[in-house]
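lol so apparently i was supposed to do this last week
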Amino acid sequence: MATIFSRIVAGEIPSYKVAEDEKNYAFLDINPVAPGHVLVIPKKEVDYIFDLEDDDYVSLQSFAKRVAGAMKKAMPCQRIGVAVMGMEVPHTHIHLIPINEESDMNFFKEKAVVTSEEMARIAQSIANEMQETHSELF
Ligand code: 5GP
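anyway here it is w/ guanosine-5'-monophosphate bound
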């Protein structure tokens, strides 16, 4: 059975999409650690990131770098923090989180409350930054 993230890529489940290329997809985490929390995934369904083929791994990381660049422009923050755990959804995903201090990366604190309007606005502003810098992406 397809993972929930494959179903998002296929458009069967809605997502706040931020960017997409041939191999990868980026969208807002539905339960964000901080506003603007993005998940970057390969379209290929591979559970564990280090089981990706080298070219798919490099493609994913380079796509994540571009998304992080757009997030940094769109969101007021010092840095974009990166984490990979994957204990919940068996489909590789990189968490990209706007942070101002280390404690902003705490996955165990209460999650941010972000309205659907704000989620849509954030996704659109990151997508706009992506479009401006990387018009080759869709
Ligand atoms: P992990 O597997 O790294 O522990 O985390 C999985 C992440 O996926 C969580 O942060 C969770 O909020 C997010 N997530 C789970 N299901 C969905 C979903 O249907 N849509 C979105 N946008 N995010 C999801």
